[in-house]
Automatic annotation (TrEMBL):
Its cofactor is Mg(2+). Transfers the 4'-phosphopantetheine moiety from coenzyme A to a Ser of acyl-carrier-protein. It holds the Pfam family ACPS. NCBIfam families: acpS (TIGR00516), pantethn_trn (TIGR00556), PRK00070.3-2 (NF000832). Its EC number is 2.7.8.7. This is Holo-[acyl-carrier-protein] synthase. It catalyses: apo-[ACP] + CoA = holo-[ACP] + adenosine 3',5'-bisphosphate + H(+). Mg(2+) binds at D8, E50. Keywords: Cytoplasm, Fatty acid biosynthesis, Fatty acid metabolism, Lipid biosynthesis, Lipid metabolism, Magnesium, Metal-binding, Transferase. Its main location: cytoplasm. InterPro entries: 4-PPantetheinyl_Trfase_dom (IPR008278), 4-PPantetheinyl_Trfase_dom_sf (IPR037143), ACPS (IPR002582), Ppantetheine-prot_Trfase_dom (IPR004568). GO terms for cellular component: cytoplasm.
Length: 117
């Protein structure tokens, strides 16, 4: 059963300007394993994190680094959640998350579906 759906879109040029103006955004928004990625990939991951918050209803005090996005051997993205997000998902009956991300024509977009029993 679907427990939540979230979508977000990020303007790549605006995101790049923000990061260039405020270099501290990268360590604040991304887990260590995400930080070396190209700007368009970071923007897509930021959109995915925003979409996750929307799918959950809120982030209940979780930090951005607790929402890590990794890819499996075939390149399929997925979330690795840390800290309070794991317990938040359990409390809301969410057992799995599905995420897709894309970037093209100056924007990055992500879509998240939260599933549960």
């Amino acid at each position: 059963m679907i427990r939540g759906i979230g979508v977000d879109i990020v303007d790549l040029a605006r995101f790049t300007r923000q990061v260039e103006r405020t270099p501290g955004l990268i360590p604040r928004l991304f887990a260590e394993g995400e930080r070396g990625l190209p700007m368009h990939s970071l923007a897509a991951r930021f959109a995915a994190k925003e979409a996750l918050i929307k799918a959950l209803g809120d982030s209940a005090g979780a930090t951005w680094q607790e929402m890590e996005i990794v890819s499996d051997a075939q390149g399929k993205p997925g979330f690795v959640l840390h800290g309070s997000l794991e317990s938040l998902m359990q409390a809301r009956g969410i057992t799995s998350l599905h995420v897709t991300m894309t970037h093209d024509a100056g924007v990055a977009c992500a879509f998240v579906v939260a599933e549960g029993a």
